[in-house]
Fold:
Amino acid sequence: VQLVESGGGLVQPGGFLRLSCAASGVIGSINTMGWYRQAPGKQRELVATRTRSGITNYADSVKGRFTISRDNFRNTVYLQMDSLKPEDTAVYYCYAQIVTPYWGQGTQVTVSS
Structure:
């Protein structure tokens, strides 16, 4: 199983970005897909997850600003990030729970003026 992320970059505060993550090599269905992030000197933390049936979970710090969506047929998960803040700066990792958890290589998001 391979997870490939795209969509990171540099954006000004108040701006937006959309991350995508496509899973390949999957046999069967993926239960939960989502996003975690890790800022320098900090532990990796949950951003948002979405189950195959559509149940979502968001970190309090991103509620109302980020939206997670999923295309189950294409095994792809998206993260729409609006009203970005400097504290959102981190490496964002895609996550997929099949039998075991899988991780993407990470994509850098930098929010700075």
Remarks:
- The two ends are 37 Å apart (CA to CA).
- The chain has no helices and eleven strands.
- The mean pLDDT is 96.
